[in-house]
Fold this protein.
Amino acid sequence: MSTATLSPVAPSVAPAAPSSLRVTQGRVIRSEWIKFWSLRSTTITLATAVALLIGIGLLASSMLNSGAATGPEAGELGPVDASLAGITFAQLAFGTLGVLFMASEYSTGMIRSSLTAVPHRLPVLWGKITVFATVVFVIGLAASAIAFTGGQALIGDGAASWSDAGVARAVIGSAVILSASGILGLALGALLRSTPAAISTLFGAMFLLSGVAQLLLPESWRDNVVQYLPSDAGSAFTSVSQGADALSPWVGLGVFAVYVAAVVAGGAWRLKRSDA
C-alpha cells in the first residue's frame, strides 16, 4: 500500500504591485497637467492675463511717448515701468487661475478621487504647483518680453534696451512674480478650500493691504511697514528704478517668497491633516 507524500504548503504572499501601477511624483504631475488643460477656465484666463499684460503695457508706453504719463499729477513713469504696467492686472488673473486650479476640486468633489488615487496627498499639491508654475512662467516671460519690446518701440526716443542695467531682471522678474502670485492663489485654494474666500483673500493681500496700511498706519511706521507687504515687495523686484523707501530687488524677492512659502506650508498642512 503506497503512502501519499504531502508537499509543504508555501505561505501565502500578497503579490507585489506592478511597477506600472505605482504612484510616482512624475505620474501625478502628468495627471495634473491633463486636469489643468481640461479646465474651461484655463485657456480663457491665460489669454486674459496675456492681453492685460501686453495691452496695458503698450497703452502706457504710448501715453509716455505722448507725454500723458508724466508730470506732477501722474508722477514720473520710466520706459520699463510703462511697458510692464500691466503686471498688476495679470497678477490678479494668474492668481485667480491658481485658486480655480485647486479650489474647484473641492467645489466639485473631484478632490476625493484625486486623494484616493494618491493617498499620501502632498504629491497632488506638489504636482499642481509644478504644472502651474511652469506654464505661467513660460507664458508670463513671453508676454513680458513682448510687452517690453513693443512698448520701447512705441516710446521711441528715450526708450530702454535689453542691455540697460536692471532691464533683464525686470522682464524676467515679472514672469517670476506672476508665477509666484499664481502659486499664492493655488495655496490659498488649498488652505481655504473655497473659491470666493481664496480670491477675496488674494485680492485683499495683493491689492488692498498696502493702501489700507498707508491710510491707517502712523507716518513714522508707514514706510518701514509698507515696503514689506506682498505687493510692494514684489514690485521692488520688477522695478528698474528703486524708490528711497523701497526694498532692494533681491530682498523684495526674498520677502515675497517668504509669503508664498508660508501659505504653501499652510495649504500643505491642511491638505495632509484635514478630510476632503
Notes: The longest helix spans residues 122-155. Confidence is low (pLDDT under 50) at residues 1-14, 70-75. The chain has one domain: 24-273.
